[in-house]
Design brief:
By secondary structure, the chain is of the alpha+beta class. It is about 45% helix and about 10% strand. It has one domain. The protein is built from 9 helices and 6 strands, in the order E-H-H-H-H-E-E-E-H-H-H-E-E-H-H. The longest helix has 16 residues.
Length: about 210
């Protein structure tokens, strides 16, 4: 997963991947079945992914990864957590058995509020891998993953991780903020759930409105 921090001009905006996003939604319904997709009718709640100030970092990551694993209906096996310096935000081993291995960029010790968003993306990678929906093209696979995470109820966190101020900005994942908003709006139309009540980022709220 990409982790972008920098000036506001560095954040891509609008709907440059809209055709791919629509194709990804079609893929979910076709390959998982409409009934299975509708089975994700209740999103991950903020209270389930909140990080207490005094919570041990590794234990917290393990706990939140477990929330994502159970939400997506994956086997509830142990989660091994490692932190290291790397260009990416995170990485998860999509193993077919045994423990999940989660590696996080060590910067997340200072950005704990975004760990839920990162794990939503990474655990969705595992879900799609097990469902046989991984794509060989990296860019297309990442767009499918972000779209699936948002549409299946855990990826609203990815939009809420989009924040800006006068000097810096942050965005997680590969979709633009408006594209995350598009997917979440499609989910809202399908199941009647309004994610705006959970947003902590004003920029996320505005992007959803677009």
């Amino acid at each position: 997963m990409s982790f972008g921090r920098g000036a506001e001009r560095d954040v891509e905006r609008g709907f440059p991947h809209l055709a791919e996003v629509r194709s990804a939604l079609t893929t979910l319904y076709r390959e998982l079945s409409p009934d299975r997709v509708r089975g994700f009718g209740v999103s991950v709640l903020p209270v389930d992914v909140a990080f207490d100030d005094d919570e041990d970092l590794t234990a917290g990551v393990r706990r939140i990864a477990g929330v994502m694993v159970r939400h997506l209906g994956l086997p509830d096996v142990p989660v091994e957590v490692r932190f290291r310096e790397m260009a990416e935000a995170a990485w998860v081993e999509p193993s077919d058995g045994g423990a999940y291995t989660v590696e996080l960029n060590q910067r997340f010790d200072a950005h704990r509020r975004d760990i839920g968003a990162v794990l939503a993306h990474e655990v969705t990678h595992v879900f799609l891998h097990r469902a046989g929906l991984s794509l060989t093209d990296t860019g297309a696979d990442e767009i499918l993953t972000d779209t699936a995470a948002a549409y299946l109820g855990c990826g609203w966190l990815l939009l809420d991780a989009f924040r800006q101020d006068a000097l810096t900005s942050q965005k997680l994942g590969y979709l633009t903020p408006e594209e995350y908003g598009y997917v979440l709006a499609k989910r809202s139309l399908a199941i009647g759930e309004d994610p705006r009540v959970w947003f902590t980022s004003p920029q996320a709220y505005d992007a959803y409105g677009k």
